[in-house]
Amino acid sequence: MDYYTNLGLLEMDRSPSNYRLYPVEMVERIHWIEEQKNSGKCLSEIAKLIGNETTESKPFEEVNIHEIRLQMKKLEKDVSKMMENLDEREKQQLKQKVTPESVSLIQSLILLLQ
Q1: Which of 1, 33, 56, 60 is most buried by its number of CB atoms within 10 A?
Q2: Measured between alpha carbons, how far is 59 from 55 in angstroms, rounded to an integer?
Q3: Among candidates 24, 107, 112, which has minimal Cα distance to 65?
Q4: Spatial contact of 44 and 52, defined as CB atoms under 8 Å apart
Q5: 15-42 pLDDT tens trace
Q6: What are the phi and psi torsion angles at 98 (to 5°)?
Q7: Among candidates 64, 65, 63, which has minimal Cα distance to 111?
Q8: Cα(75)–Cα(78) distance, integer angstroms
Q9: DSSP 3-state assignment of 79?
Q10: What are the backbone dihedrals phi and psi of residue 93, each rounded to the nearest 5 degrees, phi first?
Q11: Which residues are CB-contacts of 72 (< 8 A; sequence separation ≥ 6)?
Q12: 73-111: pLDDT as tens digits
């Protein structure tokens, strides 16, 4: 389990009214960042402080962008092949199941990886 999962960033609980419930550690981190900003530090300085803290106390996993691009291309090819085998009604049903959040995530990933 990585650092961000420990803070609850990936699997965040929600209240009955669908509000996100943030862990105490995350709220404390936000307060600490605000204190640093109020003391005159710029965001890049704060990021360095956070980076040092993360690397000293909790190692993080490096991301291989090239590998992600290759996997996305393979997924795109696989999805295209699947779509070719569907009739028009099945294609429409599938498109209706894709949420706007999923589309936004896909578009964001494409932009980040270009």
Answers
A1: 33
A2: 5
A3: 112
A4: no
A5: 888 888 778 888 888 888 899 899 999 8
A6: -80, 120
A7: 65
A8: 5
A9: helix
A10: -60, -40
A11: 109, 110, 113
A12: 888 888 888 888 888 888 888 888 878 778 777 777 777
Alpha-carbon distance 83 to 99, whole Å?
Answer: 17
| Look-up of token digits 């990585």 | 2
φ and ψ at 20, to 5 degrees? -70, 140
CA nearest 10: which of 72, 2, 31?
2
Structure tokens at 86: 């569907």
For residue 63, give the amino acid letter: V
* Helices 43-57 and 24-38, packing angle to 10 deg: 140
Please say whether the beta carbons of 47 and 65 come within 8 A: no
CA-to-CA separations, 101 to 43, 52, 108, in angstroms, rounded: 28, 33, 10
Which residue from 33, 55, 28 is spatially nearest to 45, judged by alpha carbons?
A: 33
Residue showing tokens 């590998």 = 67
